[in-house]
Amino acid sequence: MDIKKSRREILQMSGLGILGLAGCMEGSNEAKCPDGAIEKENEYQPIKGSGGWWPHPGCNLTGDGKGYGMDPKSDTMEISWEVPFPMASMPSVRPLIRDDTAYVGWQRMGGLGMLYSLDVERGEEKWVAEYEGGALVPGSVTRDQIYAGSPDGFHSFDVETGGLSMSFKPEGEWRFINGVHGGDRLYVVGMGAGEEDTIYGIDPETGEIEWEFRSDYIAGLFAIQGDSVYITGKDKIHRLLRVDGSEVWSVSAGPGYINDQVIANGEIIYGIGRSEYTGEHKISAIEDSCGSIDWSVVSGENGTFGGMAASENALYVSSQVKISGRNEATARMIALDQSGGSRLWTSEAENMKYATTEWGNPIMINGQIYVGELQDRINRSDIASMKIIDGITGELIRTIQLYEASIFLGPSSVSAGKDTIYSLIGGTLRAIR
Question: Are 270 and 282 in contact (CB under 8 A)?
Fold first, then answer.
């Protein structure tokens, strides 16, 4: 098995879309549609802040249209409790938070999938579900069920008991399957063992497939907004109608660009792709109604783009830049103006000597950015921490060190719930409040 490829696929499946943050203004795109493009109105659900239905990398969003709390006190936050999990054969992915419960997916040595339900006040275990089909990656949680993917299917578990309620196992060979409960139906992505991947629209009551759409590279980081689903293909981003999976438009980031993720933010859809030829990354901002690229930003040959978070006016992107002449790299958070892609500010990590620094998927809460950091140090223990950055100025507010170890595979994932930030790294979940 290709370990690096498998890890990338599982990490891709760990975050799945975000509901749009702004409403649709009638006629606002009329002058932006190029010749031949047809304007397609999307019935957005107007909301404020970061709330919504659809989980995004690092967020706590659930399946009932609510975001919970999201009011941490950044000036006084400290680690409240921590829970270590058994030795695992896969990296951890971000937890889901709902009300008084945190849900964490895991895989033990030998391939046994685990799903933990923990009390958020003290980290005490409520129940643990086991699944023989491999790693369980939580996608979304509703009032009654938590939904998680595995290498062989997409499953729901009772939130009170952890009992298995339903399994969807499509025909064919798969590397991994995951999805979310979208209110009207389940949206499930199957990453194929061959070239072709599939997204399914599934009846949540019967498990029957209502529609399916195939492409040769559908990443797990898709988005849902209004009446549409947004997915990646090998060199395209597609907008599909939720009702029947029919394609509204598809947009190419450019020849040779493989798209890794997409988020929806009202009238703008953001995608990140990487070039098969140069290795550089590109952010594309797409007009939703027209399906045309409004602007794009390229990382350059020494840089890469990672996770994204959006506000009403800006896009926040974690990036990494190699240090010229040295086998090291430093992490940056960049803020891009939504209207044109110009850079508003850059916040750069303080690199230790002989270290490569990486930032994970950011989340934004009350104007502040929370992101996990990893300092990968040569011949020394790695350092895991969490950064808090001012979303307006880019100034570093605080660094909260988590701990040092030599087994990290990436920066910590972060999730928000009520007045608490949850960090998952190195097999340990920490509550910071």
Answer: no
The range of the structural domain enclosing residue 326 comes to: 3-25+49-432
Phi first, then psi: give them for residue 205, nearest 5 degrees. -85, -45
Token digits of residue 84? 């270590």
- b/e sequence 99-108, b meaning 16+ C-beta within 10 Å: eebbbbbbbb
Could you read off the pLDDT of 143-155 as tens digits, one per residue?
899 999 998 999 9
pTM of the model: 0.86
DSSP conformation class of 88: B
Note whether residue 364 is domain-resident. Answer: yes
| Digit-coded pLDDT (tens) for 174-193 | 888 888 888 788 999 988 87
The enclosing H or E element of 84 equals strand 79-84
Q: The CATH number of the domain where 69 resides is what? A: 2.130.10.10
Q: Which of 230, 300, 256 is nearest to 56 (CA)?
A: 230
Query: Among 72, 119, 124, 128, which Cα is nearest to 97's?
Result: 119
Q: pLDDT (tens digit, 9 = 90+) per residue, 371-390? A: 999 998 887 888 999 999 99
